[in-house]
Description:
Blueprint: H1 3-10, H2 14-18, E1 26-28, H3 37-45, E2 53-57, E3 75-79, H4 87-92, E4 96-97, H5 105-110, E5 118-123, E6 131-133, H6 141-147, E7 150-155, E8 167-169, E9 175-178, H7 193-204, E10 211-214, H8 218-225, E11 234-235, E12 239-241, H9 242-250, E13 265-267, E14 269-271, H10 274-280, E15 286-288, H11 291-294, H12 297-300, E16 306-311, E17 314-316, E18 321-322, E19 325-326, E20 329-330, H13 337-346, E21 351-355, E22 359-360, E23 365-366, E24 368-369, E25 387-390, E26 393-396, H14 402-411, H15 415-427
Parallel strand pairs: 1-2, 1-5, 2-3, 3-4, 5-7, 7-9, 10-11, 10-16, 12-14, 13-15, 16-21, 17-24, 21-25
Antiparallel strand pairs: 6-8, 17-18, 19-20, 22-23, 25-26
Helix pairs in contact: 7-8, 8-9, 14-15
Coenzyme A binds next to strand 16.
Amino acid sequence: MNFDQAYRDRRMGAADAAALVHDGDTVVVPTGVGEPPALLAALSARGPELSGVTVSQILPLRKFDYFNPATVDNIRHNAYFFGGPSRPGGQAGWIDYVPAYFSELPQLIDRGLTPVDVVFSMASPMDEHGFFSLSLAPDYTMAAIRRARAVLLEVNPNVPSAFGECRVHVSQVAALVESDEPLLEVGLPTIGPVQEAIGKHVAELIDDGSTLQIGYGAIPDAVVMQLRHKHDLGIHTEMIGDGILTLIESGAVTNRRKTYMPGKMVATFALGSQRLYRFMHLNPTLEMHPVDFTNDPYLAARNDKLVAINATLQIDLLGQCGSESIGATPYSGTGGQVDFVRAANRSRDGKAFIVLPSTAKEGTISRIVPTLATGTHVTTGKNDINYVVTEYGVAQLRGKSARQRCDALIAIAHPDFRGELRAAAARMRLM
Length: 431
Ligand code: COA
């Protein structure tokens, strides 16, 4: 096959590529910066003439025109996780969602439990062997490519070419659309004194030589900032962002003591600055893999001293975490939280941390509660939870009784709420 000819045969404008989507199709789009803006804008523009098209994605970053309750019969977003553009529709009920562990999305696709007709993705320029790198988010996209009728790539020279199982061959592609706009950047969240205090508590419990998974949100990044003086850390994570990049640049990450894939960092999607995307390009220390590899609890647990750091919104006195909804109102999604909590629990000397400020809404609400609000989506369950950290300290729950859990969690609740939590625990016959 002449790859250059194959490339030319498939190259077209975004409108022509979007015309390959038919009524009733499901279009699968990768996480975050892996979403192709020219293709999605062209699909949006076709909205009025389409019917019953679904766009399935875990974390949209841009608000395309199809995020509109008036046009959901034309094109409807289907969420694996709510982000900025999809949250209002999720909360109002005109965007639907699929509850799932991130690690299992490729399996749902492979088994036909969730449909795929077309894949849209960002891609690096083609190499001399005819391959494009989908380094920004191979996540469930590689599985979707195996089942799709048509794969449409937006080829952009700013997309890094990374190692790992994230390559697709020109012969598998139906359309190539070229663009060169800079990749979206997502900055580090603001870290206040509460987040910093939580970061310090967690950092004290992380040994040199640990392998890290860093979750989503301000506190996981606050923890990272406290680890710059550690030695020989490793990375086996879901998301690689600027927090991890800062840690690498500090010299704290060598990956040498990893017991699974030593010398290599592993991730399934990238979300950060141009600096991060440049760092990923042909970097022999990094591999980008599908999420059923990175987040598989059994594989990730082959790293001894695996440390997982993930955030929650609310936790009850048994340690059940409502990380993705506020009551029955969806906020985000399960993502990889449970995958990595379970992985760290299985890992020899591993530690799973769930982090949260003790209060929300300027100190008016305790996030440690006797019972989760009615309708709360439970993310990490009581049998999986281990370390819980607020700005007041650390509660270690695994192996502990209900009574001991109440004691430990109330001790790290905000002092203003400890009395009422104790009274509620007594009423519930937990203490
Ligand atoms: N009651 C009412 N409101 C609450 C609340 C509670 N118990 N807890 C939080 N909130 C509000 C906050 O005040 C905040 O509102 P604001 O935006 O108006 O300030 C909002 O909910 C978000 O809370 P916050 O603590 O700032 O969340 P975060 O930005 O740190 O994100 C999540 C945390 C949502 C990302 C995280 O819980 C999540 O999705 N976890 C599941 C997925 C996961 O862990 N993935 C890891 C692998 S990447």
